[in-house]
Q: What sequence folds into this?
């Protein structure tokens, strides 16, 4: 029993530390990936129109690796000691070491949250393939939640590989059977796709983006078709509650669009851990 406890504690602590490191990388993904997509869009527009007077895109050498992270105010390059997750922010007092401009609390928050979620997945799943899958899914969902909240984008660079990765894991019945995963991916995409077109035919407006279809398809591929009703219900309920709260607080207007991806991502995380209990309560079985 002592050996088992020690082993589980070691896995949880290891995943917590790993989560800190991954969270630091997720901060880069959340910030840079939308900029990379914008750069690609500008290049494509320039190539299609042939208009050399268009605003030139930033230098091509801009991706998740280069250039090195720097202060947006004074361009001071972040050193290794200044890039230790959470700890560096605390030691620097939340300010740039050179110009003393404030560093957003969001960076250590994402790092700490990723660590907490990773440790929670380790405590829930224990050592094995389900833990590996849960970590990869939760990290991807956290990235998508933040990117969509910031930019109203759910990049194909994350959502599409997530679909195939879910099917790959479930080829070994990691979270559900492969047929249920395939049905889940199809139903996830087609359900929101149908709602999108029905809403557009009735109102003439677009109610959601195609990224939402792909994200729900990915969740279906990971968790199976039976998890989809609970995910949609949780996402809709949380979206309604938060949306009403934001409108009541005068932080959001009725006519301003709200991203649905963050709520799908949160619902997916909840279903990943408590999916069976949620489904049992929903279906009464």
A:
């Amino acid at each position: 029993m002592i050996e088992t406890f020690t082993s589980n504690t070691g896995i949880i602590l290891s995943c917590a530390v790993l989560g800190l490191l991954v969270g630091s990388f997720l901060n880069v993904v959340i910030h840079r990936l939308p900029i990379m997509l914008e750069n690609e869009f500008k290049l494509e527009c320039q190539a299609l129109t042939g208009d050399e007077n268009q605003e030139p895109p930033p230098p091509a050498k801009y991706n998740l690796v280069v250039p090195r992270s720097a202060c947006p105010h004074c361009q001071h390059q972040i050193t290794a000691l200044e890039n230790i997750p959470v700890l560096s922010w605390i030691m620097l007092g939340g300010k740039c070491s050179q110009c003393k401009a404030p560093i957003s609390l969001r960076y250590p928050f994402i790092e700490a949250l990723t660590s907490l979620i990773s440790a929670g997945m380790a405590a829930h799943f224990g050592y094995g393939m389900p833990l590996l899958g849960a970590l990869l899914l939760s990290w991807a969902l956290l990235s998508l939640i933040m990117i969509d909240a910031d930019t109203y984008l759910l990049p194909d660079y994350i959502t599409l590989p997530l679909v195939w990765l879910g099917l790959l894991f479930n080829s070994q019945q990691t979270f559900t059977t492969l047929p249920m995963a395939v049905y889940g991916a199809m139903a996830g995409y087609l359900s929101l796709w149908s709602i999108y077109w029905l809403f557009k035919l009735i109102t003439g407006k677009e109610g959601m983006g195609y990224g939402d279809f792909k994200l729900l398809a990915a969740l279906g591929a990971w968790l199976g078709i039976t998890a989809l009703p609970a995910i949609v219900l949780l996402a809709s309920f949380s979206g309604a509650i938060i949306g009403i709260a934001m409108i009541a607080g005068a932080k959001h207007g009725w006519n301003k669009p709200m991203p649905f991806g963050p709520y799908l991502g949160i619902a997916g995380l909840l279903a990943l851990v408590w999916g069976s209990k949620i489904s049992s309560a929903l279906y009464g079985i």
Observations:
- Residues 42 and 48 are 10 Å apart (CA to CA).
- Residues 2-49 form the longest helix (48 residues).
- The chain has nine helices and no strands.
- The radius of gyration is 21 Å.
